[in-house]
Specification:
Elements lengths: L1 H18 L40 E3 L7 H5 L6 H9 L17 E3 L9 H13 L10 H8 L6
Parallel strand pairs: 1-2
C-alpha cells in the first residue's frame, strides 16, 4: 500500500518535479507512514488496533477499489463526506462557536483528486462564515457559492 501511495503521488506531481529538473524516479519511496487519528465517540466496541476510528486530522483520499467506501477506509460505520466535512468544521458541535478552517480538510474519492490546493481551506472558512450568517462576498460566483459553500456548510 505504501508503494502504491508513493507511486500515485509521484504520478500526480511528476510535472512539477520535471519542471524543477528532478526525475520523479529518483525520489526514493518512504519506508514508514505515520497517521494521526482522532477518535469518534460511540458506544460500540473498539474497531481494530486503532480503537474507535475516525479520520486523520487532515485530508482523507480513499479509493473504493482499494479501501472501499470512506466509512471502511476510516473505520467508522456510516461516515460520509458530509459528516466528515461538517464535524471537522465545527468539531465541538454546532452550539460551540469554534471553527477549524486553516487546513485542507477534505474526504475525497481519489478518482476526483486534482492536487493539493488551498481551495478547501478557503471553502471551510467560507462555510464557517455562512454558518455565522455572514453574507456571501460580492466577488464570489453565486453558483459556486450555492454549490460549494452553502450547499456543503451543513450535514
Amino acid at each position: 500500500m505504501l508503494a502504491k501511495a508513493h507511486n500515485a503521488l509521484l504520478e500526480a506531481t511528476a510535472q512539477f518535479f520535471k519542471r524543477g529538473g528532478v526525475d520523479p524516479a529518483s525520489i526514493p519511496p518512504p519506508t514508514k507512514l505515520a497517521v494521526g487519528v482522532w477518535s469518534r465517540p460511540y458506544d460500540l466496541e473498539p474497531i481494530g488496533p486503532v480503537g474507535y476510528g475516525y479520520t486523520a486530522p487532515t485530508k482523507v483520499y480513499y479509493s473504493p477499489e482499494v479501501s472501499g467506501t470512506l466509512e471502511v477506509a476510516c473505520g467508522v460505520d456510516g461516515l460520509s463526506e458530509s459528516e466528515y466535512r461538517s464535524s471537522l468544521l465545527q468539531p465541538f458541535g454546532e452550539q460551540a462557536r469554534v471553527f477549524l478552517a486553516n487546513n485542507d480538510w477534505v474526504a475525497l474519492n481519489s478518482a476526483y483528486l486534482f492536487g493539493d490546493w488551498a481551495e478547501e481551506s478557503l471553502l471551510m472558512s467560507e462555510r464557517a462564515l455562512h454558518r455565522l450568517k455572514v453574507a456571501k462576498p460580492a466577488w464570489l460566483s453565486s453558483d459556486y457559492y450555492e454549490k460549494e459553500v452553502a450547499g456543503k456548510a451543513w450535514k
